Amino acid sequence: MNGIDLLRRKLNVVKKQKELLILEEAKLVRMARQREDVARKLERVRKEKFRVLAEEAKLIRVIKQNVNPA
Known about the structure:
By secondary structure, the chain is mainly alpha-helical. The protein has helices at about 5-35, 40-65. It is built from two helices and no strands.
């Protein structure tokens, strides 16, 4: 396995994490309308989602740079 394959596998993991975080965020938003104690957990999920989005973007850039060198 070369480095690009490993990066692609990591990208797939990050995409799955992103999908799960988006679903969790949606669930918490619905719950927040009913209860107020969900706000802290929702904030943590949103921070984690943005971290995962940044990691995904970084991995995509690295893969593109290595697959199609300028």
